[in-house]
């Protein structure tokens, strides 16, 4: 693999690691957990209401058509607690009203979450385009500050070094020059290889698997601010 290929692979691995770390933090966030539980509860509630409506309407249709009862019809009547037409109509209407209320609450909750995300997106990047279009940039990944904090203890701070005074580094350099003479470690060669790789990369917003820069841009919001 070429040096730029190794760089590409390393950055992909680093980005994936950061994304996994951010997802784990979101899973453990109490507020996000409460939101997930709320929506899960409402989903179950909607399913139960729709089930009651279907059972009541099905029994009413059977009675109007004067069809004989099947085992399924008997189970429906047992679950609903009645086979009286008036009671079944009442159950169906009440559950339809409940369904409308619950679905409206779900939509209101989604709109509230969207408004919060929009405000947060505008604070991070004040733009009339964001407000006019209502488009919310992806913010489910870590921002620039979080990326910096993640890498700081790993990469550390730049310090002055004198590699020629270190025996092991001198041996390593000589080994690299002798065994991998086709790869010069001069700054000019490194810059040339990097520029060659960059020229072959696709634009930032190109679709599909288009190199490390697009991966970062799509997967990690705020990375362009680094």
UniProtKB/TrEMBL annotation:
It comes from the Eukaryota. The keyword Coiled coil applies. Keywords: Coiled coil. The keyword Coiled coil applies. Residues 46-121 form a coiled coil. It comes from Enterobius vermicularis (Human pinworm). This is INCENP_ARK-bind domain-containing protein.
């Amino acid at each position: 693999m070429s040096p730029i290929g190794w760089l590409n692979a390393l950055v992909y691995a680093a980005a994936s690691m950061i994304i996994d770390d951010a997802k784990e933090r979101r899973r453990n966030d109490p507020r996000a957990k409460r939101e997930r539980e709320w929506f899960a509860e409402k989903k179950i509630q909607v399913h139960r209401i729709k089930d009651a409506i279907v059972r009541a309407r099905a029994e009413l249709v059977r009675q109007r058509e004067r069809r004989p009862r099947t085992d399924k019809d008997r189970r429906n009547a047992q679950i609903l607690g009645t086979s009286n037409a008036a009671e079944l109509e009442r159950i169906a209407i009440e559950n339809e009203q409940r369904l409308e209320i619950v679905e409206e609450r779900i939509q209101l909750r989604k709109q509230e979450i969207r408004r919060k995300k929009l405000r947060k997106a505008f604070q991070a990047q004040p733009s009339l385009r964001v407000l006019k279009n209502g488009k919310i940039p992806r913010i489910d990944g870590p921002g620039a500050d979080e990326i910096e904090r993640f890498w700081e203890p790993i990469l550390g701070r730049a310090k002055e070094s004198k590699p020629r005074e270190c025996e092991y580094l001198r041996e390593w350099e000589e080994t690299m020059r002798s065994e991998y003479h086709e790869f010069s470690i001069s700054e000019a060669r490194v810059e040339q290889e990097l520029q060659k790789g960059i020229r072959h990369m696709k634009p930032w917003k190109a679709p599909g698997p288009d190199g490390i820069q697009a991966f970062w841009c799509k997967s990690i919001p705020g990375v362009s601010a680094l």
